[in-house]
UniProtKB/TrEMBL annotation, chains A, B:
It comes from Rhizobium pisi. PROSITE patterns: HTH_LACI_1, HTH_LACI_2. Residues 3-57 form the HTH lacI-type domain. The keyword Thylakoid does not apply. Keywords: DNA-binding, Transcription, Transcription regulation. InterPro entries: HTH_LacI, Lambda_DNA-bd_dom_sf, Peripla_BP_I, SBP_2_dom. SMART domains: HTH_LACI. It holds the Pfam family LacI. It comes from the Bacteria. One of its GO terms (molecular function) is transcription cis-regulatory region binding. This is LacI family DNA-binding transcriptional regulator.
Length: 341, 341
DNA sequence: CTGTTAGCGCTTTCAC
DNA sequence: GTGAAAGCGCTAACAG
């Protein structure tokens, strides 16, 4: 039988209350007593039963998700996954709330975080906007003891406990290799459609993409990046225009959102030529385009996994417990038309 | 506050014991009383606190994993993941045991299952051997109330509750498309290395592979399947021999295990020619081969995910709870050298 | 058939 | 500083 608080109380010759105080590092225990209890804990190999503790405490983990107020399919899906997590709240002892902030607006994000530092939730998950002032307040909150995980877009160089998202440099590299291999010996130009070069994940994807292209596919030339602001209309215009003007384009890499517009442009302008296209994020639109051969491969991050992972990690950090690293790694999913879920 | 057993006892005008009997569908409750309690449960929207129940019961979930005694890298990794799960047992209230049975031996599997039906574990996870007698006993056990999930290799047409493994037809199709696209306009022959056509997952991969090849890549001819019995030595011999004899081979699909031998053969015989190679399962050997360009892509199933998923599903089924379907779907991982974990 | 009571492992008053 | 005792939500004897 696993040792319980009773066992260590007996072994240390103290009461349950004292054991509990030591276990939860509460004050009011003499140094020697604390030592005795800690010794007993170690000797008996005590492992705390978190479920029982939570039952006694009536604990619920209050978690906050901070999301940008952008309305592309991916963010919509992310929201849906958070709602699913909220439905599971009773069973998981969570109390999840989302806060929307204007996209790409560090100041707004900072003020929300400032607000939260007063409210003291058990954990914060945030789609990070990569700016020094955000890093600063995140570091301050982490130092103050808040568990924080970044979601989808990371805040490198900060003290955030965990990043629940894909490796975007690897994603860009993978896109380059797929495109290069699919195109084979052909020479030509590659159009790149991004949302904005101000966002870290887009910059990283581009960085990975261009480096593999340069190293391994010298016959392919990358054209200047089209910034579609993750907006279908703008994306449509930019891509349609590029295809009309440049007959040398043989491949497209869409590393941001707004693929609805991209797909429309492809259908209008590329009926008569063979284009190889790689895009990010599996949505109803990209799925249909993959199936009808408008898109050749989709790189995806599983929003459901990201949300579940963020919740698990925040709960674990709140309790000072370890996470299963492999379980929390967000894979880069590669979908061809044959392995769609 | 969530309603508790006390609330429904009060609402129904009965005692805690009676509520508990209804909740756990134990006998000894008059029909009318049961109705009253069930009404109260429904009206108050009662949700049982599984953690508290397990605490009171002192419950541990005894789970058995039945694995084939084959010693390829994949099975070795699967075993390692089960050991990891065993390490987590205290926290997860599980008691996990593995049983090895001779590979591809339906009779042995049946007798182990027969044995288990007496021992009554809370759940069984098994790498299924696809045979009618196995299906029969699995169905019998499921009818008798045992939660059963198949692992890695499914038992279609049986009543097993769940399959924790990849869609192997999709895997074969994906391999075909990758190979076809990577080879581009080239014409030539494709060697296929399998373990054994007696195993369902290998048959399915081949089926998916050949169908996409036939539909979409008519310039590529599939050679008769080489059956390497998942053995590196045999695989080496077969592949080396095929490459020596046939200069028309431009691609290889290895859909089983024993890739160590395949890789050796490729390094010996294919230095002077450009071969495109797709293999299954990420191991130390295939990873190295991917990095040095001997292999072009690896299709993988995440053994860790499979084991964790099997445990979660078995626990849920033992409690009659729902699972999160998306979480339990085992993805087909596609690894290029750029997105290795 | 139904109710009373003790207790799972842990936390939390409130005394001492 | 420390301990005794009650209680979290649920289950399991054991009475009646």
């Amino acid at each position: 039988m696993r040792p319980t608080v009773h066992d260590i109380a007996a072994a240390a010759g103290v009461s349950l209350a004292t054991v509990d105080r030591v276990l939860n590092q509460r004050p009011g225990v003499r140094h020697v007593t604390r030592e005795k209890v800690e010794a007993a804990i170690r000797e008996l190999g005590y492992i705390r039963d978190v479920a029982a503790a939570n039952l006694a405490k009536g604990r619920t983990y209050s978690l906050v998700f901070i999301l940008p107020a952008s309305d592309n399919s991916f963010m919509y899906g992310l929201n849906a996954e958070i709602r699913q997590a909220i439905l599971r709240s009773p069973a998981e002892r969570t109390d999840i709330r989302t806060i929307e902030v204007p996209a790409f607006d560090p100041a707004a994000l900072v003020s929300v975080l400032e607000e939260l530092s007063r409210e003291k939730p058990c954990g914060i998950a945030m789609v990070a906007t990569d700016a020094p002032e955000v890093r600063a307040i995140v570091d301050r909150l982490v130092r103050a003891g808040f568990p924080i995980v970044t979601l989808v877009s990371d805040l490198t160089g900060s003290l955030r406990h965990h990043y629940a998202g894909v490796d975007n440099i690897a994603a860009g590299r993978t896109a380059a290799r797929l495109l290069g291999r699919f195109l084979g010996p052909r020479k030509g130009e590659i159009a790149v459609l991004a949302g904005s070069m101000l966002v870290r994940d887009h910059r990283e994807r581009l960085e990975g993409f261009t480096s593999v292209m340069a190293e391994e596919f010298p016959d392919l030339t990358i054209l200047p990046v089209l910034e579609g602001r993750d907006d279908p209309e703008i994306a449509h215009m930019l891509v349609a225009d590029a295809l009309s003007r440049n007959a040398g384009i043989i491949g497209v890499y869409s590393l941001g959102a707004g693929n609805r517009g991209l797909i429309r442009a492809l259908k209008e302008k590329a009926v008569d030529r063979t284009l190889t296209v790689i895009a990010h994020e599996l949505t109803a639109h990209t799925r249909a385009a993959l199936l009808d051969h408008t898109i050749d491969a989709i790189l995806n991050q599983d929003a459901g996994h990201e949300v579940r992972s963020a919740v698990r990690v925040l709960k674990a950090k709140a309790d000072g417990l370890a996470v299963i690293e492999a379980q929390e790694r967000i894979r880069l999913d590669i979908f061809l038309k044959d392995n769609l879920p």
